[in-house]
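Consider this:
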Amino acid sequence: MEVRATDLSEPEVVSLIQLHLAEMHEASPPGTDHALDESGLSEEGIETYAAWDGGRLLAIGALKPHDDFVELKSMRAHPDARGTGAGKAILTFLIERGRELGVPTVKLETGSGPMFEAALGLYRSFGFEPCGKFAQYEPGEFNQLFALEL
């Protein structure tokens, strides 16, 4: 498995982002979906990575810089790669990239419910803990906020 930067021109990456957006929109109550599309992931400073097995896309994930932390965005394993360790591999890579950037904390916002249980289990297994408000996010009945101190 190889994790490398993507400039979002790879059709497989774009397709997985579009699938992720559709699923997040469907699984999230109105006003609670904060997933980024390709234009959002192309904003200045955001780094997007893809995990590959040869020519097969396994997972994607991005880091959005803030003043004193980085935020995980667009964490998504390809449906055909679930259970292969791809999510764990890309999360490990993104955490290490946060360390390289010298930030003290990695934060994320995610949802609640069956669609989010696997991701929540992954984040907790890495030591992410619930946290309070950050950036434009407020914890709520659906939205959950987590942080990992590096």
User: Anything to note?
Assistant: Residues 14 and 148 are 28 Å apart (CA to CA). Helices lie at 11-27, 38-41, 86-101, 117-125.
